[in-house]
């Protein structure tokens, strides 16, 4: 018999002292419901039982509530702008002990090498990072990403025990039309007995039947209770998302009842570090859901057991003998303020602070990911000879845009002139992976704000080229060139000088600096966005800009190849007078 297993049984039987006993805890039972007062003993990183065993260490819970470790069922770690170790340090103190991570962003930059980095950089952390292999790299064939991932590329990784399945299947037409490459990826996951995540905003009826029948079994893109219920009725899991930009939890909560709550999960998808430090992580979902009327036990199940069952995380999601000792101590079942967090039986965080700094892996070649071709003399010149232009229109707190036709004034040569068109901005995307020199230039609704300068960033979903917007060409050029010099990041330029910047040298997406440091820099950038640039208060200065480059969300977006009409699924000219 294995010596560790024998010792574990000896500890459970009281023949050897437990490693830890937590006294005076109110233990939430996700299996039978309710809360009971009892000690919880831990040995070898697992729960021994509920007897008052002799223990080497005793922790007094002070009558607080003990929950299973919280699970984020869908997150892009890269969207936190933090490397895996720094991300772990910011979410663990809020009770998140496991995340289901889709490295879609770094995969679009570095392909398999990017996915391997996320696996290796997260190995051995107290935060358990399970990876969903990115299914859509690039998101669409019309994009210029840094890599292309086919089923054969994913096959070498699918058998990894920390790979939980295939990431969000955004290529809905590929599924519905039985595209060979798309189906090969789905069948690869099925052959390994692993899950396929979905991404199907607005899909309904027979098309949703086909999508589910193909093996896609989750969705985090529901925006109405009706959409959520349609998916639950088809046996899918629905994730209630509450991120920094997309906030759907309260809109979807009316769909959840005491029966179907077992098919519901919580996720953040994309949440920035300042937002995490201010609102929390999955514990904030619990707080919001319970305040809105959801039963606390159902809410905790959605944050623990449901996610563990969905992704086949054996021994996670509950507090029971033999289960992993991922535990969270909270003040109560209303505010869910976290007091202590154990990961694998070891105290990792207490009173909102990590007990030790976590080691991080050298990203190596991922630091040199920005390869921008030298800019020509007038990289952002825009000709609109007809005087009628397609303009990207933005909406409050939304990733959806509109295609607005506007009258514009030009020079005698038909060139757009800022001075003649107050209230309109230029927006451009520059390919930065292979130095091809591709540059798409368009016009952006002045509602976004941005007066007196330019903002550029290498975080531009999903291909992560450099996107820049501004009210003059000179500052746009400066912001782009400084972004490239930093190796990626966010740059704010005005009147010929750089006002502020945040370097993101790992893939042009992540920093290895502390979460607090990145959060402080972001707060300063956001302050400048409001006070200097006068960015619209119903848009996020950087996330809104990043998503304007994503041609899978209607209606008009910008890529390195030009304007893309998502509804018509074709490129269109800025000059609306041209066909």
Largest sheet: 8 strands, mixed
* Global geometry: elongated
Number of helices: 17
Mean pLDDT reading = 96
Distance between the termini: 76 Å
In terms of DSSP E residues, the strand content is 15-25%
Number of beta strands: 30
- Cα-atom radius of gyration: 25 Å
Strand order of the largest sheet: 21-20-23-22-25-24-26-27
Structural class: alpha/beta
Query: Helical amount among residues, as a percent range?
Result: 25-40%
The unreliable regions are none
Structure, briefly:
The chain is an alpha/beta fold and 579 residues long. It has 17 helices and 30 strands. Strand 26 and strand 27 (497-503) form a beta hairpin.
What would you note in describing this structure?
The model has no long low-confidence stretch (mean pLDDT 96). 26% of the residues lie in helices and 25% in strands. The longest helix has 17 residues, at 515-531. With 579 residues, it is α/β, with parallel strands linked by helices. It is elongated, with a radius of gyration of 25 Å.
Secondary structure topology:
Layout: H1 3-13, E1 20-23, E2 26-28, E3 35-37, E4 40-43, E5 46-49, E6 58-60, E7 65-68, E8 70-75, H2 84-91, E9 96-101, H3 104-110, H4 112-122, E10 128-133, H5 151-158, E11 163-169, H6 172-176, H7 180-191, E12 195-198, H8 205-213, E13 218-219, H9 225-233, E14 237-241, H10 249-252, E15 264-267, H11 273-279, H12 282-291, H13 296-303, H14 305-310, E16 327-330, E17 338-343, E18 346-350, E19 353-354, E20 388-394, E21 401-407, E22 424-430, E23 439-445, E24 454-457, E25 466-470, H15 473-486, E26 489-494, E27 497-503, H16 515-531, H17 541-547, E28 556-559, E29 562-565, E30 570-572
Parallel strand pairs: 1-6, 2-7, 8-9, 9-10, 10-11, 11-12, 13-14, 14-15, 20-23
Antiparallel strand pairs: 1-4, 2-3, 4-5, 7-16, 16-17, 17-18, 18-19, 20-21, 22-23, 22-25, 24-25, 24-26, 26-27, 28-29, 29-30
Helix pairs in contact: 3-4, 5-7, 11-16, 12-13
């Amino acid at each position: 018999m294995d010596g560790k297993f024998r010792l574990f049984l000896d500890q459970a039987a009281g023949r050897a002292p437990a490693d830890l006993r937590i006294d005076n805890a109110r233990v939430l039972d996700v299996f039978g419901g309710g809360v009971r007062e009892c000690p919880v003993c831990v040995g070898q990183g697992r729960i021994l039982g509920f007897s008052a065993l002799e223990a080497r260490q005793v922790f007094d819970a002070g009558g607080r509530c003990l929950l299973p470790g919280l699970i984020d069922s869908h997150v892009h770690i890269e969207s936190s702008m933090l490397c895996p170790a720094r991300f772990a340090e910011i979410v663990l103190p809020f009770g998140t002990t496991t995340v289901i991570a889709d490295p879609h962003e770094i995969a679009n930059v570095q392909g398999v090498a990017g996915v391997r980095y996320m696996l290796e950089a997260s190995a051995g952390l107290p935060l358990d990072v399970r990876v969903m292999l990115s299914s859509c790299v690039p998101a669409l064939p019309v994009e210029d990403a840094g890599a292309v991932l086919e089923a054969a590329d994913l096959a070498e990784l699918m058998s990894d025990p920390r790979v939980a399945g295939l990431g969000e299947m955004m290529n809905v037409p590929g599924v519905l039309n039985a595209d060979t490459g798309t189906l090969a990826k789905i069948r690869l996951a099925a052959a390994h007995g692993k899950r396929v995540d979905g991404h199907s905003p607005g899909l309904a009826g027979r098309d949703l039947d086909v999508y589910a029948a193909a093996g896609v079994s989750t969705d985090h893109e529901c925006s109405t209770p009706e959409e959520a219920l349609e998916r639950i009725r088809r046996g899918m899991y629905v994730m209630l998302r509450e991120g920094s930009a997309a906030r759907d939890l309260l809109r979807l909560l009316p769909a959840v009842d005491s029966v179907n709550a077992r098919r519901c999960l919580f996720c953040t998808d994309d949440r920035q570090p300042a937002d995490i430090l201010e609102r929390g992580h999955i514990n904030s979902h619990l707080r919001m859901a319970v305040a809105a009327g959801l039963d606390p036990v159902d809410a905790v199940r959605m944050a623990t057991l449901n996610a563990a069952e969905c992704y086949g995380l054996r021994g996670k999601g509950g507090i029971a003998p033999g289960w992993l000792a991922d535990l969270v101590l909270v003040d109560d079942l209303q505010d869910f303020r976290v007091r202590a967090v154990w990961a694998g039986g070891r105290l990792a965080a207490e009173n909102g602070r990590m007990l030790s700094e976590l080691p991080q892996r050298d990203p190596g070649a991922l630091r040199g990911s920005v390869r921008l071709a030298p800019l020509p003399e007038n990289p952002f010149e825009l000709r609109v000879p007809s005087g009628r232009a397609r303009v990207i229109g933005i909406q409050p707190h939304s990733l959806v845009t509109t295609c607005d036709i506007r009258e514009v004034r030009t020079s005698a040569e038909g060139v757009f002139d800022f001075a003649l068109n107050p209230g309109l901005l230029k927006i451009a995307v520059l390919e930065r992976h292979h130095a091809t020199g591709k540059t798409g230039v368009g016009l952006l609704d002045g509602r976004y704000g941005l007066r007196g300068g330019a903002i550029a960033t290498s975080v531009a979903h999903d291909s992560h080229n450099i996107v820049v917007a501004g009210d003059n060409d000179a500052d746009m050029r400066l912001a782009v060139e400084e972004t490239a010099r930093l190796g990626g990041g966010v740059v704010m330029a005005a009147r010929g000088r750089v006002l502020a910047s945040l370097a993101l040298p790992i893939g042009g997406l992540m920093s290895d600096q502390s979460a607090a440091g990145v959060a402080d820099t972001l707060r300063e950038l956001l302050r400048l966005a409001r006070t200097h640039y006068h960015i619209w208060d119903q848009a996020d200065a950087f996330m809104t800009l990043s998503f304007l480059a994503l041609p899978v969300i209607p209606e008009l977006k910008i890529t390195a190849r030009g304007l893309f009409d998502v509804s018509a699924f074709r490129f269109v000219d800025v000059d609306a007078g041209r066909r």
